[in-house]
Amino acid sequence: MDEPVIQALSSQTCDLIAVRDQRDRAAFGRLFDHFAPRLKAMMVKGGLRDGSAEDAVQDVMLAVWHKAAQFDPHRADAAGWIYGIARNRRIDLARRRPLAQPEDLPEIESDAPDPAQILALQQEASHLVAALCRLAPEQAEALRAAYFDDIPHSRISEMTGLPLGTIKSRIRLGLERLRHELRKIAP
Description:
Keywords: Sigma factor, Transcription, Transcription regulation. The chain is mainly α. The protein has helices at residues 2-8, 11-22, 25-45, 50-67, 78-96, 115-133, 137-148, 153-160, 164-185.
C-alpha cells in the first residue's frame, strides 16, 4: 500500500525520506547538489552577500540533516520543507543584523533658512517695499497685480479698462525703475 504513495513522490522527497529513515549519505548528497545553488540564489536575493549566503546554505543543509526525522511527506514535499527551513534561517539572520547606530546615520540637512538668511530676506523685502512706494501709483498697482497677485496682463487690462499695451508699458517701466532703485542699495 505504501509503495504507490512513494512512487507518486518527487525524487527529492524520496531522497529526504531515505535520509530520515536510513541516514542515507548518498541521498543527502543528491539533495545538497539539487538545493544548494537554489538556496544560495534565494539567500542572495534576500540581501545576503555571496560569502554569508554560502554559510547560510551550509546551515540550512545541516539543519536538513539533523531535522530529517521531523519531515512528514504527508504535510509537505521535500522542496517546501527545505525552503521553509531556509526562509526561517534568512529571517533569523536579518533579525541578528545590528541596527544602524545614530552616529552611522547621515546628517540630514535642514531646508529651513538659517537666521542670517531670514534677516537678509527681510531686509530685501523692506527695500523692495520702499522702492515700490517710490514708483508712480499706476506702475506700482500694475506690478502688484502682475507679480504679487499673479494676474495675467490681459486680465489686468480687463479689470482696469485700460488697453493691454498700456498695462504692459506700466509693468515694463515699473520694473526698470525698480531695478534702478534696488541697484542703489546692492553692495
